[in-house]
Amino acid sequence: MSKPVYRRILLKVSGEGLMGDADYGIDPAVSRRLAREIGEVRELGVEVALVVGGGNIFRGAGLAAAGMDRVTADHMGMLATVMNALALQDALEHAGVFTRVMSAIKINQVCEDYIRRRAVRHLEKKRVVIFAAGTGNPFFTTDSAASLRAVEVDADIMIKATKVDGVYSADPAHDAGASRYRRLTYDQVLDQRLSVMDATAIVLCRDQGLPIQVFDMTRPGALMDLVLGADVGTIVER
Ligand code: UDP
């Protein structure tokens, strides 16, 4: 059997990624497939942490644009990520994967609080840890939370699941000449304003030397290919 190239990964799944082709909520078929694929990677011996977004339910910026107080709106966005985390936990447990949800906002009847040392212990015990509620602070995104948690738990890489197989020179849906970058530096992403993640998240990864891999989560088997070292998506590194 092939050997994984990573010991510990942090996988960031956006709320939209869980939505499938719908325009709201979670597509159970998508969460089931994702759970199965995460389980396969776990079986290979890779320790897996997840950060899940909330954009399929609420986004703070969107609610604020409609007139809501931004901090309240961001609290709603963070709570949306908790719901997604519970849905993913359920899907993972149905796939036979042991999991823990840890929230950056105290919500003890529902899940554990995020405590770094405890999170690392869960990973060492081969549980998949799902980090919910982002960073726990308004005005941040779950991409920033993913970068932060990846650095905190000493993941080898932050893997960002998207609907395209990497970062392109232009939007491949509108420009036939668009080509995929295999590798980018953090500064190229920042200088060219390439849509990988927000600048806060990129800068944290750059300063801590944490590589980011962008890949297409809609292609079955892509996560396994990535973990086995295949040339999928785009890697952002020094
Ligand atoms: N959010 C926040 N602080 C964080 C992470 C998230 O306030 O540290 C809120 C913010 O309102 C955001 C929402 O939670 O819009 C959902 O997260 P995000 O938009 O990152 O989700 P995704 O786009 O990945 O689905």
TrEMBL record:
GO terms for cellular component: cytosol. Its EC number is 2.7.4.22. ATP binds at K12, V13, S14, G15, G55, R59, T162, Y168, D171. InterPro entries: AceGlu_kinase-like_sf (IPR036393), Asp/Glu/Uridylate_kinase (IPR001048), Uridylate_kinase (IPR011817), Uridylate_kinase_bac (IPR015963). It comes from the Bacteria. The gene is pyrH. Catalyzes the reversible phosphorylation of UMP to UDP. It is found in: Cytoplasm. Belongs to the UMP kinase family. Pfam families: AA_kinase. This is Uridylate kinase. The keyword Cell membrane does not apply. Keywords: ATP-binding, Cytoplasm, Kinase, Nucleotide-binding, Pyrimidine biosynthesis, Transferase. It catalyses: UMP + ATP = UDP + ADP. UMP binds at G54, D74, T135, G136, N137, P138, F139, F140, T141, T142. One of its GO terms (molecular function) is UMP kinase activity. Homohexamer. One of its GO terms (biological process) is UDP biosynthetic process. Inhibited by UTP. Residues 8-216 form the Aspartate/glutamate/uridylate kinase domain. Pathway: Pyrimidine metabolism; CTP biosynthesis via de novo pathway; UDP from UMP (UMPK route): step 1/1. The keyword Transmembrane helix does not apply.
